[in-house]
Automatic annotation (TrEMBL):
Signal sequence, start to end: none
Residue segments, region Disordered: 1-21
Species of origin: Nocardioides mangrovi
Protein name: ATP-binding protein
Upper classification of the organism: Bacteria, Bacillati, Actinomycetota, Actinomycetes, Propionibacteriales
Keywords attached to this entry: ATP-binding, Heme, Iron, Metal-binding, Nucleotide-binding
Keyword Metal-binding in record: yes
Length: 399
């Protein structure tokens, strides 16, 4: 098969040629955009799921829908060692720029730009790396607005002003936050507080966050009302029919088909996880001699996919861990192999990990906390841990 015509895209956050299995979320978000722009009550949204299930792809697709409806949009990627103030200022600046040129009142635009500048310049103790940024706008910062140093209060004032500016045009502002679980608890609380206040005002602004499976729990811990504040969407692996669609639709556009047995084998290998669907689809295409793609082609290509994943998807994460953290993960993998209940690599009690390693649970807390901070495991429930990466236990057991 011609590798130049290969339609599959196993890239981080790269939209696949066929965004299968997300039709419901896309349709619902269109309704949300219309309702918010019409000042009807709606909630912001949170996407959560394991690595490789397509959260970033879906987040970008939702942002694209807002752009097509002429909303002002901005996107940030949260980082555990960086305050949210400057990234939010940069994202809001991008959103304001998208609507400002259509506004008929330049003085009104300048007023909002002044508030944005005031917000951006108010860096303080919450700015953990001392990052500073001045918006490239020729206006004077507005004193006494969005510059108190209290992040929640400043976000409320900033979001309220930019939402009002967009509302003048009958549209809204969308702020899209990837890796949202990496925000500090105080920052999560500030975002929740701002969303709560603006939703009560029915201001046309939405925050759409994406993060690991424990993000809903982190939000609820930050603000007790967060469980009612957002619409939560669990992004999971694709069911069989949607995985088939992800393989077959792009291939059909290149006049290539699959034998049913080849699709059976592909799904067995990938479990429907979107990143794996693209990775195995790509190497299978390159290995196939022609159409239809056969089960023998899938089996011949599988070692190449496994080797690539072992280096880039799994290996890079494993190498980030300290020796103590690796021991902890290997113990999780050993325990997840055969739990006696038919489940594989699900949530593992931390007490079982300690017993497996012959250690006291308290002595393993630094390793566990380090893995959580690095995004390699998450606390599925109190007293348990699970891998954030699908098939990671299988990878560790194969080493």
């Amino acid at each position: 098969m011609d590798p130049i015509r290969n339609p599959y895209a196993p890239g981080a956050g790269q939209r696949p040629p066929e965004l299968a299995g997300r039709d419901r979320e896309l349709a619902q978000f269109d309704i949300t955009l219309e309702r918010v722009a019409a000042a009807r009550p709606e909630r912001s949204m949170v996407l959560s799921g394991l690595r490789g299930v397509g959260k970033t792809v879906l987040l970008n697709a939702l942002r694209g829908q807002a752009v097509r409806r002429a909303w002002g949009t901005g996107k940030i990627e949260a980082r555990p060692d960086q305050s949210i103030r400057i990234p939010v200022a940069q994202a809001v600046h991008a959103a304001v720029r998208e609507v400002a040129h259509r506004h008929r009142d330049p003085d009104r635009v300048d007023e909002v730009a002044g508030v944005l500048k005031s917000f951006a310049l108010k860096t303080g103790v919450e700015d953990r790396k001392g990052m500073r940024w001045t918006p490239p706008i020729d206006v004077v910062a507005t004193r006494g607005r969005a510059d108190s140093g209290d992040l929640e209060l400043d976000l409320i004032e900033l979001f309220g002003d930019v939402a009002s500016l967009a509302g003048d045009l009958g549209v809204g502002i969308g702020l899209f936050v990837d890796e949202m679980q990496d925000l500090a608890p105080a920052e999560l609380a500030a975002v929740c507080g701002a969303c709560h206040e603006l939703s009560q005002q029915r201001a046309p602004l939405l925050v759409v966050g994406a993060g690991l499976p424990h993000l809903p729990v982190a939000l609820a811990a930050a603000k007790s009302y967060a469980e009612r504040l957002f619409r939560y969407v669990s992004v999971d692996r694709l069911p069989r029919d949607m995985a088939d669609r992800a393989w077959m639709v792009p291939a059909a556009e290149e006049e290539v088909d699959f034998e049913p047995e080849a699709l059976d084998e592909l799904y067995r290998l990938t479990d429907g996880y979107p990143y794996f669907v693209q990775a195995y689809g790509k190497v299978t295409w390159d290995a196939a001699l022609g159409s239809p793609i056969r089960v023998a082609d899938v089996r011949a290509a599988a070692p190449d996919a496994e080797a690539e994943l072992a280096v880039g998807f799994f290996g890079a994460r494993y190498e980030r861990a300290t020796p103590a953290e690796r021991d902890y993960m290997v113990a999780m993998a050993d325990l997840g192999a055969d739990r006696g209940d038919g489940a594989v690599d699900g949530a593992i009690p931390t007490s079982d990990v300690a017993a497996h390693l012959g250690r006291k649970p308290q002595s393993l807390s630094p390793a566990r906390d380090g893995l959580i901070k690095k995004g390699l495991v998450y606390a599925a429930e109190r007293g348990t841990v699970a891998f954030t990466v699908p098939h990671f236990g299988r990878f560790l057991r194969s080493r």
